[in-house]
Design goal:
Largest sheet: 7 strands, mixed
Distance between the termini: 37 Å
Number of strands: 9
Strand order of the largest sheet: 3-2-1-5-7-9-8
Structural class: alpha/beta
Order of helices and strands: HHEHEEHEEHEEHEHHHHE
Oligomer: single chain
Helix content: 25-40%
Number of helices: 10
Radius of gyration: 20 Å
Strand content: 15-25%
Length: 300
């Protein structure tokens, strides 16, 4: 499996090739999530900058989520996961990373990723794993799904991007369709700021209540979440996480790479520095997540 450092290095080199053509970088200012806005993920260059800013931290967060999952599983020889809003499948990388940490490299993975967009830079499939990448609205796949067969249903920073109606469709499927496993997990990565997190947690509540109608129980209060009581660098907690230094300098000083800056020695708009001088997330203080184990009532 490719290391996170090499993965980001490859993304960085591709973005640098694009920017070396002396292009204006105004479109990258829209990668900011302010007022609930979503970037144009269809744009490969937006994907590149998004991954350089966030994939490092997300890969670490998802690995910690999967550590929690594995600690509660009886059998880790096989694991099946459905990722709802999978993007480039960073959460698949995290699962493999955790299995390697636990010296369980023989564990085979069946992974289904669902996303509206066919992302570039997908994590490459490990030998003997089974991967499926489904392009479309997750709510439609839930509607057409006849039963739930995975050990894990993973929402990687995606639950906020589903409308209430889409979330209700998914919840109704969980409440009414056959769930094959007697024990399974719903993993949700939450946004950090309080207002956004409160909205995400209401969606958690909706899913917990729906699954409860299908004769499953959890001990996890819907308002509960995990976080780090510090803001240490990720590398201090897992030395596999080394951010490539050239990419770091490039991303945090992106404003000076703009064609307009190179000509004028200044940015053309007052907000260029605000939106283009943003560091990748390298610390753990932003992390908020839920790993919710469900067990069938008549199985407990």
């Amino acid at each position: 499996m490719i290391g996170i450092t090499q993965y980001l290095q490859e993304v960085y080199e591709d973005l640098q090739k694009y920017i070396d053509n002396d292009v204006c970088l105004c479109k990258f200012k829209k990668l900011n999530f302010e007022a609930g806005s979503l970037p144009d993920y269809e744009d490969i260059n937006i994907q590149q900058l998004y991954l350089l800013r966030y994939a490092f931290a997300y890969a670490f967060e998802y690995s910690r989520m999967y550590l929690d999952v594995l600690a509660q599983m009886d059998d880790v020889n096989n694991i099946s996961a459905t990722s709802v809003g999978c993007g480039s499948m960073i959460d698949y990388w995290s699962l493999v990373h955790v299995l390697e940490m636990k010296h369980k490299i023989d564990c085979s993975i069946r992974y289904v990723g669902i996303d509206k967009i066919d992302w570039n830079y997908k994590i490459r499939q490990r030998q003997n794993d089974e991967l499926h990448y489904l392009i479309g609205n997750a709510a439609d796949f839930f509607t057409n799904n006849s039963r739930f067969i995975s050990d894990v249903y993973f929402f990687p920073k995606s639950i906020s991007e589903f409308s209430d109606s889409e979330l209700n469709v998914m919840a109704n499927s969980f409440s009414s369709k056959k769930i094959q496993k007697d024990r399974f997990f719903v993993c949700i990565s939450l946004r950090e700021d309080q207002g956004s997190m409160d909205r995400d947690i209401q969606k958690t509540k909706c899913l917990i209540e729906a699954i409860g109608k299908n004769r499953f129980k959890t001990k996890w209060p819907y308002t509960q979440y995990k976080y780090f009581d510090c803001d240490n660098g990720i590398v201090t907690l897992d030395n596999e996480f080394q951010y490539p230094p050239d990419a770091l300098e490039f991303v945090k000083n992106l404003n000076i790479e703009c064609a307009n800056y190179k000509i004028q020695k200044m940015n053309c708009q007052s907000d260029c520095q605000k939106y283009l001088r943003r560091w990748p997330i390298l610390k753990v203080g932003h992390i908020r997540y839920q790993v919710i184990m469900f067990e069938r009532l008549d199985w407990i």
